[in-house]
Design goal:
heterotrimer, A alpha/beta, B mainly alpha, C mainly alpha, A: alpha/beta, Rossmann fold, six-stranded mixed sheet, 17 helices, about 35% helix, about 25% strand, B: mainly alpha, two-stranded antiparallel ribbon, 15 helices, about 5% strand
Chain lengths: ~500, ~350, ~325
């Protein structure tokens, strides 16, 4: 394997942004016919390195050689022409164009001059269909991309990147929205490409995926190059140690969490027959004080939809909500807030942080919203509150007046949780709170969740990582195909959850 | 010095000072302020007086832009408010010289303001409840509103003879123009409300990330509706000042191009069109810049046609200066004056 | 596929509905010439609206088009007065219009400035330049212009089109072709769908963004040329507020102001609908012309609400 031809070699890459040295002296060597993992915690510099390789950012120092020739990608288009293709985390298809057009955009087949010289749509559709078929995807290529589920769009995005005969294919967190079946299909595709001699750079958080499909690993930490390892020679523990910089004490099961003694009190929040057409079939759910209810299920099973309906972010078509056994009117998030509910959304950038505001203002926002316009949380009070919570949660920030956009993803997430903690919620809904967060921060967050429950808050914990759900929850509710599949008590293991998930009904939702 | 330069109000203030200096250079008497006829008198006073309606409208516009909205109907609302007030006061002119108002003055003013606020509410409902894009929603009133005003006046200009009405646009209180008092009072009230209550934070949150604000429990719909209603109300106040100034209601011309000047004032003052952070003080300065420019052109003896070209050049200059990309380009060129060296 | 054409269908239906209403209510409403007059009287608006369609499809807006029309008429009149060859002066103003648009597009693209403000300033600049050339109207006495203005192209049924109307139709056809079959046109749609995604895909976003404003400037200049045939004069106050009519035509034609969705053919119908409103009011005789504005406003409202409804339903189904 070490004889494989080197396709891309990046040396001594450095890049600084105002206030932060994102990369310094980073190396990367990609070989033909290999899948190379790029790993590191949040803020390690992976995204920046990819931006440099694809011409989105220019490096301050360093050189890139493609097949022995020095190259300087000036733009994504230029990088594509050179043979470096990428599927970014934020790659989206254009929702208003057809699937075929998304795949062929910029490379349309043209009619010959004599017949008008315009775009040949029939050929475009044909090419797209053939390309997707080669990847095992059957789709109506003429339909608008916006109508497809997110996971299918992701596959089409990869298909597009593949269409350019790239020598280097960069995949930046391609599996974060895919379920197990789709991941399998993607890996089959990756292996097919690898066998064709493409050098593939694969960025992911999922350790098991690295070992499943990758040949080599490059680890970055704090913008610096830590090392390049062969997968066979470095085990998961060693990998984590390289990423984190110290041996992680195996946390094992978190501190014992006394099962909640509700004493027969009615559920803090209960929903009967809650549903929304096209998103969630009618179901019941109960959240009890001091209890962590885990919500498990595959992508698309309705977990986030249920959470959003409970918090009234989306309007429900049916169902009654009650708080402490009494019917409650919750028609908008402000109502939910008044009743002591809190909601940490899945997408912190889109629905969580207000980028322009400072950490202090972001943290104080929900509490102030609950107090309304009548009562004012004075700046001094906001400062005290923010400082207390920043310290308690270990949010790494230069200060509470820093614009929250400057924090890393994990710290932003902590700040959002701090926002809700400030309101002393009776019910806290956490939707994928650990996504995109490094291991150390994940541990801290999960401990925090347990502390909350110990203090009497009812927690609804949603995570795609079944292992996490199993570890933390007092009770597990399993969703399948937008309906409730069942509940499992504390102590149920992952197998039990997977069994409940996979008892698939043959009819589509 | 660098920190001063980075202050939000640095560029607007500098621009205004520059304009005043140019005026003073060409006309040494420009900056003179005297006491005449029982009140302050001079070019500067004039600028402040004429800028008052624009300041008022621009303050409303600032808040709308801050919540990621836009209101291009303010000119039409000015016309509507002026028309309603004029109709209610009446254009009667009795031979004896004693002019009475058809309705009590306060009622006429209140109705005009009420209608203006209702226009703002209409815009807000279209944006919030019907989910329309602000530029479209307010475009509708901009197009139809003037038509409605002209329908009410039958295409005529209504002259108002009722003297007490003139104080709004022409009167003086303690030597300072009443219009300026109105603008200053509005600013004071807004400033107090925004800094002593959570409204400022909520507006910045809604403008910064509407979805996040909603998730955090901010009552975005209600606040946005209030902001648009206030903008309509502000336009109504400006309409009263303007029509009082010219002692008539001209449905066709009143407030013509005012929305553009207001958006200009907001932008010149440093509030971004993308919403979020805003500055009322900057907007006030922006309005003063626009008015100073007009006065400067007039006092320099330059033909008034040049006004538009100069306004355009000024807007381009400020826009470019506010653009990070342009500043970076200038820095790069300044460091490497040799062509081709990067 | 069919759902995408629904807004266009609604627009066409509305047009037909209004035509039928007019035919029933007034005699001679559907005479072929009255019908063609819809296009003849609004030819310059049609040309401008096609350019505006592309700008709006890309998610931008161009407020300078009315002013550019006026400036075009002024420059044409001034050049002709100075003795220029009529065709040379036409070519000149078209080039100037394109350059003006390209300059705006450059500022918008290169420095990430808001299109609203840039074209607003452009509008001030263009109208200001009009006043600088002359505050009075300048008549056009050139023989070529006069003969073009008077030319009539018969199309049968005792009806005929003007040169301006033919130009408008050609521009619509060209616009449809560019939108559907050219790389530039598809890039414009892509930008409207998501600029950052389009950029990451490697599409030529930068040049396309400048291109739409260049196209809009060119169309505005061409609209100005058509207006000179119509008015035979150059005047700074020509086409005041025309940009709003153009935007209304585009929206009523089914193009979303957010960008990415819409058809050039729809814009043609949008223009015809605006024309038919004016004709209906003129035929009625009792309504003052203010009603035109009110009806246009009401139609805009209706269409925007329909667009919202349509979006909401398609989102639920997805």
């Amino acid at each position: 394997m070490s004889d494989a031809a080197i396709v891309l070699r990046a040396r001594d890459i450095s890049r600084a942004f105002p206030g932060v040295q994102a990369l310094s002296g980073v190396e990367l060597t990609l070989r033909a016919g290999e899948v190379h993992a790029l790993m590191g915690q949040n803020g390690a510099g992976k995204s920046t390195l990819i931006k440099v390789l694809t011409g989105v950012q220019a490096p301050d120092t360093g050189s890139i050689e493609l097949l022995g020739q020095p190259v300087t990608p000036r733009s994504p288009l230029h990088a594509q022409e050179l043979g470096i293709s990428a599927v970014h985390q934020e790659s989206h298809l254009l929702p208003n164009l057809s699937v075929a057009e998304n795949i062929c955009a910029g490379r349309y087949p043209r009619r010959p001059w004599l017949r008008g010289g315009g775009i040949d749509w029939r050929e475009t559709n044909k090419r797209a269909r053939e390309l997707l078929a080669g990847l095992g995807i059957e789709l109506d290529v003429a339909q608008l991309a916006g109508g497809l589920p997110a996971a299918v769009q992701q596959l089409a995005t990869v298909a597009r990147a593949v269409a350019t005969d790239a020598r280097v294919l960069i995949l930046d967190e391609p599996t974060s929205s895919l379920d197990a079946e789709e991941v399998k299909a993607l890996f089959a595709l990756i292996r097919r490409l690898r066998d064709k001699g493409v050098a593939i750079l694969f960025v992911t958080h999922f350790l098991d995926q690295v070992y499943e499909v990758c040949d080599r690993i490059t680890v970055l930490r704090n913008g610096k190059f830590v090392g390049e390892y062969a997968c066979g020679k470095l085990d998961a523990r060693g990998l984590v140690a390289a990423m984190v910089g110290r041996e992680l004490v195996n946390a094992g099961r978190p501190a014992a969490h006394a099962p909640a003694d509700t004493g027969g009190a009615p559920a803090v929040l209960a929903a009967r027959g809650i549903s929304r057409r096209g998103q969630l079939k009618p179901m019941d759910i109960e959240l009890r004080a001091g209890e962590v209810l885990g919500l498990a299920g595959l992508l698309g099973s309705g977990r986030t939809e249920l959470a959003r309906l409970l918090f009234a972010l989306d309007a429900r078509d049916s169902g009654e909500l009650s708080v402490d056994g009494k019917p409650a009117k919750i028609d908008q998030p402000a109502d939910a807030l008044q009743l002591g509910l809190g909601f940490c959304p899945e997408d912190r950038k889109e629905s969580g942080i207000v980028a322009e505001l400072s950490v202090r203002e972001n943290i104080a926002l929900a509490l102030q919203a609950r107090m309304g316009l009548g009562k004012f949380l004075k700046p001094a009070e906001q400062r005290a509150l923010a400082e207390k919570l920043v310290a308690a949660l270990g949010v790494k920030t230069a200060g509470i007046e820093t614009p929250i956009a400057q924090l890393s993803g994990g710290n932003q997430q902590k700040a959002i949780i701090a926002r809700w903690l400030a309101t002393n919620p009776r019910v806290l809904i956490l939707d994928e709170p650990t996504r995109g967060i490094d291991i150390a921060a994940k541990q801290e967050l999960m401990n925090e969740v347990l502390q909350l429950a110990n203090a009497g808050t009812a927690v609804l914990f949603i995570s795609a990582e079944i292992e996490e759900v199993v570890r933390l929850s007092d009770r597990i509710m399993v969703l399948r195909d937008r309906a409730k599949a069942g509940e499992l008590p504390r102590g149920a293991d992952e197998d039990a959850v997977y069994s409940m998930i996979s008892m698939i009904s043959s009819a589509p939702a | 010095m660098k920190r001063l330069a980075q202050h939000a109000l640095f560029w607007p203030c500098t621009t205004l000072l520059l304009l005043l200096v140019v005026c003073a250079v060409f006309n040494p008497a420009f900056l003179g302020v005297a006491w005449q006829g029982g009140h302050l008198y001079g070019n500067l006073v004039d600028i402040l007086n004429r800028a008052a309606p624009l300041m008022v409208v621009s303050m409303g516009m600032t808040l709308v832009i801050a919540v990621r909205g836009l209101d291009i109907s303010v000119g039409a609302v000015v016309a509507i408010a002026a028309t309603v007030a004029a109709l209610m006061i009446g254009g009667s002119f009795s031979a004896g010289g004693e002019v009475a108002s058809r309705f009590p003055l306060w009622l006429a003013l209140a109705t005009a303001l009420g209608v203006a606020a209702a226009c703002g509410l209409w815009n807000g409902l279209l944006v919030v409840k019907a989910g329309m894009q602000p530029i479209v929603a307010t475009l509708i009133l901009m197009v139809a509103g003037r038509g409605i005003a002209q329908l009410l006046t039958g295409g005529q200009i209504i002259t108002v003879y009722y003297a007490p009405f003139y104080t709004l646009g022409n009167g003086f209180l303690l030597g300072i123009p009443v219009a300026l008092w109105i603008a200053a009072a509005l600013w004071a009230v807004l400033h107090l409300v925004l800094s002593r209550s959570a409204l400022g934070l909520f507006i910045r949150a809604i403008g910064g990330n509407p979805e996040a604000a909603r998730v955090a429990g901010v009552r975005s719909s209600a606040i946005t509706l209030c902001v648009y209603t206030f903008c309509g109300l502000a336009a109504g106040v400006a309409g009263l000042i303007i029509s009082s100034n010219v002692k008539s209601a001209d449905a066709n011309n009143a407030g013509q191009l005012l929305e553009l000047d207001a958006i200009l004032a907001v932008t010149l003052g440093g509030t971004a069109l993308t919403g979020g952070r805003f500055t009322l003080a900057g907007t006030i300065i922006g309005a003063l810049i626009i008015q100073t420019l007009t006065s400067m052109i007039y006092s320099l003896g330059v033909p008034p046609e040049v006004n538009l070209v100069v306004k355009a050049a000024l807007v381009f200059a400020v826009m470019l200066l506010q653009s990070a990309g342009f500043r970076a380009l200038v820095m790069r060129v300044a460091r490497n004056p040799r062509p081709g060296a990067t | 596929m069919n759902r995408r054409l629904l807004p266009l269908g609604v627009t066409m239906l509305l047009f037909v509905g209004m035509a039928v209403f007019g035919a029933i209510r007034y005699d001679g409403f559907l005479s072929p010439q009255v019908f063609l007059n819809l296009l003849i009287d609004n030819a310059f608006l049609c040309v401008v609206a096609v350019g505006m369609t592309f700008v709006i499809l890309s998610g931008g807006i161009d407020l300078s088009v009315g002013a550019v029309i006026a400036l075009t008429t002024m420059i044409s009149a001034a050049l002709l007065e100075a003795g220029w060859n009529p065709y040379a002066s036409m070519a000149m103003v078209l080039v100037l219009g394109a350059l003006f648009g390209a300059a705006q597009g450059f500022l918008i693209q290169r420095f990430a400035l808001a299109p609203f403000i840039v074209t607003l300033a452009g509008m001030f600049l263009a109208r200001g330049c009009c006043y600088l050339i002359s505050t009075e109207s300048i008549p056009i006495n050139d023989a070529t212009y006069a003969s073009i203005a008077q030319a009539r192209i018969p199309v049968g049924f005792d009806a005929s089109l003007t040169v301006g109307a033919v130009i408008a139709l050609l521009v619509v056809l060209a616009g449809m072709r560019i939108a559907h079959a050219s790389e530039f046109g598809r890039t414009v749609y892509a930008i409207g769908g998501g600029e950052s995604s389009a950029r990451l895909m490697g599409l030529p976003v930068a040049s396309a963004k400048i291109g739409v404003y260049l196209l809009s400037g060119f169309c505005a200049a061409l609209g100005g040329v058509v207006m000179t045939f119509y008015m035979l004069s150059g005047y700074s106050l020509h086409a005041v507020g025309l940009e709003l009519d153009a935007i209304a035509a585009v929206v009523i034609g089914g193009t979303l102001l957010a960008g990415g969705v819409g058809y050039v053919a729809g814009t043609l119908f949008g223009v015809l609908i605006l024309g038919i409103i004016q004709t209906l009011i003129a035929f009625d005789g009792t309504l003052s012309s203010w009603w035109t504005k009110i009806v246009v406003g009401a139609l805009l409202l209706l269409f925007c609400l329909l667009q919202r409804l349509f979006e909401g339903r398609s989102r639920k189904a997805a």
